[in-house]
């Protein structure tokens, strides 16, 4: 799919790169700053939903970009960069999905305390950190792939 001649992937990756780290930050704050939980409950769920959609649409639209660029296969360096980007995107897709599920459950069981709160907080911190790190790694690999060989 294209928008004004540009692949959809070029647009949605920007949403993914913005909303996934914002959602991860909201998740970390929700889990680690108890007095902010009431205020962060719905922003966390909303950001997690937007990040989930943006990452999945980026992932699926990336396959179209791959098919449209034969140099990804004829140039060994670009092919290696593509494999790195795809590998990281696969991990990101799973981490943001897990993060979103945990964020939704944490928002739903917002008033729970004890072991439920502790388990949800630990899972939220772990999946938020993984999402944050893999958003950066995947974005960097994609930028390296896109701009490989470009001379300013």
Ends distance? 29 Å
Q: Total strand count, please?
A: 2
The CATH topology turns out to be: A middle domain of Talin 1
Assigned CATH architecture: Up-down Bundle
- Domains (count): 1
Q: What's the alpha carbon Rg, rounded to whole Å? A: 17 Å
| Major beta sheet summary | 2 strands, antiparallel
Structure description:
The two termini are 29 Å apart. The longest helix has 33 residues, at 76-108. Helix 1 (8-32) packs antiparallel against helix 2 (37-68), helix 1 (8-32) runs antiparallel to helix 5 and helix 2 runs antiparallel to helix 4 (76-108). With 152 residues, the protein is mostly helical. It has a single domain, classed as A middle domain of Talin 1 (Up-down Bundle). It is elongated. A two-stranded antiparallel ribbon has the order 1-2. Strand 1 (2-3) and strand 2 form a beta hairpin. The protein has 5 helices and 2 strands. The mean pLDDT is 91.
Features:
152 residues, mainly alpha, A middle domain of Talin 1, 2 strands, elongated
Task: Describe the secondary-structure layout.
Layout (H helix, E strand, L loop, with lengths): L1 E2 L2 E2 H25 L4 H32 L2 H4 L1 H33 L6 H33 L5
Antiparallel strand pairs: 1-2
Helix pairs in contact: 1-2, 1-5, 2-4, 4-5
């Amino acid at each position: 799919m294209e928008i004004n001649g540009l692949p959809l992937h070029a647009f949605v990756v920007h949403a993914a790169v913005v909303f996934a780290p914002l959602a991860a930050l909201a998740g970390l704050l929700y889990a680690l700053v108890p007095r902010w939980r009431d205020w962060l409950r719905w922003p966390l769920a909303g950001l997690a939903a937007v990040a989930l959609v943006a990452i999945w649409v980026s992932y699926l639209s990336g396959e179209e970009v791959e098919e449209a660029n034969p140099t990804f296969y004829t140039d060994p360096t670009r092919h290696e960069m593509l494999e790195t980007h795809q590998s990281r995107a696969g991990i990101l897709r799973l981490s943001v999905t897990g993060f979103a599920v945990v964020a939704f459950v944490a928002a739903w069981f917002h008033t729970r305390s004890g072991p439920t709160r502790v388990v949800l907080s630990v899972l939220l911190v772990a999946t938020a950190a993984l999402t944050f790190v893999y958003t950066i790694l995947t974005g960097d690999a994609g930028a390296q792939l896109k701009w490989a060989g470009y001379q300013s």
